[in-house]
Amino acid sequence: MTFVSQIRGTRKAQEFGDKQIISSYSSRMRSQMVDPRNGSSVTKFVLVGFEQSSPSTRALFFALFLALYSLAMAMNGLVIFITWTDPSINSPMYFFLGHLSFLDVCFINTTIPQMLIHLVIKNHSLSFASCLTQMYLVFGVGEAECILLAFMAYDRYVAICHPLSYAQIMSWHVCMRLVSTAWFFGLISGILLDYMTFRGPFCRDNHIENFFCEAPIVITLSCGDPQFSLKMIFADAIVVLLSPVVLIVISYARILASILSRASSSGRGKTFSTCTSHLTVVTFFYTSAMFSYVNPRSTHGPDKDKPFSLLYTIITPMCNPIIYSFRNKEMKGAMVRALGRTSLAQAESV
């Protein structure tokens, strides 16, 4: 009887222990799976990015992206310095170019430094508030750049098609208003898109298959129905991306008509060469942005999203000043003068 009692007691203890384990597991699951009506259980996101790459591949990526980031910061910083200090290029075109470089500096600093850190450390988590802030800056600065590129096309149209009235039409007051308009609509639209992205609770997987918080990916992690938010972001992308494209197309159609009506072929080439830099920048930026925010999400995937995300977050901001400086004699001359003044100042200090 004593032996049987011990066996029964052992079985009861095992059953009690199993119940405790099941109860503990159930309580943990209930704490993680929150009712969507009550709030969000996700307090941080994990940026998968290049997490699955080997250490040697991540080291290679770190060296490559650090070089691209340094080049982009140096080139854009030089353009900002030149356009804001050199009186010889004191014109609306270079005023807009300086602000474009400033937007590029803001844009790459919202995503690339964090990506470089995550390539080195093992902790790839990002707090909920940090993800929200990063997405707002990406939206706001990106949309401001879209609008500014359209205003730059309009500036080229006025300069080529109405040269006698150019100074009057594109006065400094008008230029300031155009730049302020780009910033205003970008930052206001960023608030709306941020709200649409984070309006629902998050109690599902918190892994983001990219190296920064990209809105379409984050929305799919929401517990609620993501279709409404995705449709709103899609509609905003159509308005913000395609409306400037319409203005750009109209401006360059009139520029082309004006160029073709000129008798001198050399005059045509010289006039159109001032527009090719802007068209190249527009093509880079809009192609990548439209793929990321206008294409249906069913056609996307981590292998497709990351290359286009890299294109508009670091490649395009790096290429913008290079394209403008290599194809513009005035910019090249201003850069040479700026670097010469820097070298002379260093020599005098020694």
TrEMBL record:
Keywords: Cell membrane, G-protein coupled receptor, Membrane, Olfaction, Receptor, Sensory transduction, Transducer, Transmembrane, Transmembrane helix
Topology in the lipid bilayer: Multi-pass membrane protein
InterPro entries in the cross-refs: GPCR_Rhodpsn (IPR000276), GPCR_Rhodpsn_7TM (IPR017452), Olfact_rcpt (IPR000725)
Membrane-spanning parts: 59-82, 94-121, 133-154, 174-193, 237-260, 272-294, 309-327
Domain G-protein coupled receptors family 1 profile: 75-324
Localization terms from the record: Cell membrane
One Pfam family this sequence matches: 7tm_4
Domain of life of the source: Eukaryota
Entry's family note: Belongs to the G-protein coupled receptor 1 family.
Function: Putative odorant or sperm cell receptor.
UniProt-recorded name of the protein: Olfactory receptor
Name of the gene: LOC101401672
